[in-house]
Structures are given as structure tokens and as C-alpha cells.
Specification:
The chain is mainly α and 127 residues long. It has a single domain, classed as Orthogonal Bundle (434 Repressor (Amino-terminal Domain)), CATH 1.10.260. It has six helices and no strands. α2 packs across α3. It is elongated and about 75 Å long. One of its GO terms (molecular function) is DNA binding. InterPro entries: Lambda_DNA-bd_dom_sf. This is XRE family transcriptional regulator.
Length: 127
């Protein structure tokens, strides 16, 4: 999953517009964020830092590398995770698991087909 996709997912999860998201980062217009979301620009370090400052509940590992949960759990009230955000974390994890299961099922199906084909090839006319 690309950072562009994760940013779009974050904006969707926060249930805000791209323009509102950009404004939270100190941008007057949403142009830069739109370009990032559509892959025309890659987010720079300062943009990523602004996201993490504006949204302290966002897990930096998830944002940068796609690892872990979208939101982190902290004792700090300024970064407290809500029940809704926890549910979104669980939904996101289920989405990731479903993607992995689908990929594993596809690989399994391909391997079974290959085994059947090899078995049929091994059974010649004289056998």
C-alpha cells in the first residue's frame, strides 16, 4: 500500500475534506495534498511532520511504512484515541487480513492447479 493510499485512507477515516486536511497542515489551498493523493508529488518530510503534529493520534510507523495500526494509543490526553478510532483500527486490520487471505488463497489455487497438471502429465498412456 502506497503512502498516497494511506493518506487518502487517513482523510477518509478522519471524515474531513482534503481542503480541511490541507488547512490543518497550514496550507491555504488543498492543491499540494491533491497532488500527493494522485501521485503527482511525493510527500516531503516537512509535510509528514505537519501531519503527525496536526494529528498526534496517527501512528508514524503506519503513515510512513504502512506498519501497525493507523492510530496509536497514548496516555496523553492530547493524543487520546477514541472508541471510533479504535474501531477504525480494527476495520483497517480486518481489511489487511482479508487482502492477505485473498492473496494466499490465490497462491494456493495456483499451486493446486500446478500440482494437478503435473500429476496429469505424469500419468502417461502406458500407466
Amino acid at each position: 500500500m502506497t503512502i498516497h493510499f494511506r493518506l487518502q485512507q487517513l482523510i477518509d477515516t478522519l471524515n474531513i475534506s482534503v481542503l480541511e486536511f490541507a488547512r490543518q497542515l497550514g496550507e491555504h489551498r488543498g492543491e499540494k495534498v491533491y497532488h500527493i493523493l494522485h501521485g503527482r508529488l511525493k510527500p516531503r518530510y516537512d509535510t509528514l511532520e505537519k501531519i503527525l503534529v496536526a494529528y498526534p493520534q496517527v501512528n508514524a510507523d503506519w503513515l510512513l511504512r504502512g506498519e501497525g495500526l493507523m492510530f496509536k494509543v497514548l496516555d496523553s490526553p492530547s493524543a487520546a484515541i477514541t472508541t471510533e478510532e479504535r474501531l477504525r483500527n480494527v476495520e483497517y486490520l480486518l481489511f489487511q487480513l482479508n487482502e492477505r487471505v485473498a492473496l494466499l488463497q490465490q497462491t494456493n489455487d495456483q499451486l493446486l492447479a500446478e500440482l494437478k497438471q503435473r500429476g496429469a502429465e505424469g500419468m502417461g498412456p502406458g500407466m
